[in-house]
Amino acid sequence: MLHYNIVLIGMMGTGKTTVGSLLAAETGLKLVDLDQRIAMEAGRSIPDIFAAEGEAYFRDLESAALRRTLQEQGIVLATGGGAVLREENRLAMRDGGLVVALQATADEILVRVGEDPGRPLLAGGAKERITALLEERKDAYAFAHLTVDTSGKSAEQVAAEILTHYRGS
Ligand SMILES: Nc1ncnc2c1ncn2[C@@H]1O[C@H](COP(=O)(O)OP(=O)(O)OP(=O)(O)O)[C@@H](O)[C@H]1O
Ligand SMILES: O=C(O)C1=C[C@@H](O)[C@@H](O)[C@H](O)C1
Ligand SMILES: [Mg+2]
């Protein structure tokens, strides 16, 4: 098999954690959620890190955690929505596993995440922020080996689609 790890990328609310957990259950790979790992290692929540230290500090923690995590084998890695922003991260992901981008429309993302205060980058108008971030980041998500449109599909359908590719890769 060419790729052992599966790396899920995509905007907030595209289903990385949900689909990642289904993939882990189906394959026996271990689910690692990068946001959860960063928060656990820092001993505080992601909104707290953003508020106290700023986004650049969070991105440094994220890059370091990503690099370390990708040294593991046999994982499904659900990354944070902005983990693709740095080129070094994109290269590490492509080297580290089958990179799958999950896509959804801004309207669908809004329904899924609501006005969640746990997502600092959506503060001050979730719909506008989601639309702007999707536009800003569309090139950054395009490096994936596989892109799956999740609109109108259940998380189970999305996971099944990914597994077909994973098993054939
Ligand atoms: N294919 C889907 N169809 C409908 N709802 C979904 C789908 N996938 C996930 N969801 C729901 O959308 C919400 C967000 O999903 P999830 O937390 O998995 O996204 P995420 O990509 O991990 O977001 P974040 O980047 O913020 O961690 C959850 O309530 C989840 O149940
Ligand atoms: O899209 C983003 O930039 C983010 C997404 C979340 O997963 C977290 O990593 C954090 O809230 C930043
Ligand atoms: Mg998640």
UniProtKB/TrEMBL annotation:
ATP binds at G13, T14, G15, K16, T17, T18, R119. Pathway: Metabolic intermediate biosynthesis; chorismate biosynthesis; chorismate from D-erythrose 4-phosphate and phosphoenolpyruvate: step 5/7. Binds 1 Mg(2+) ion per subunit. PANTHER family: SHIKIMATE KINASE, SHIKIMATE KINASE 1, CHLOROPLASTIC. Monomer. Belongs to the shikimate kinase family. This is Shikimate kinase. It comes from Paenibacillus phoenicis. The gene is aroK.
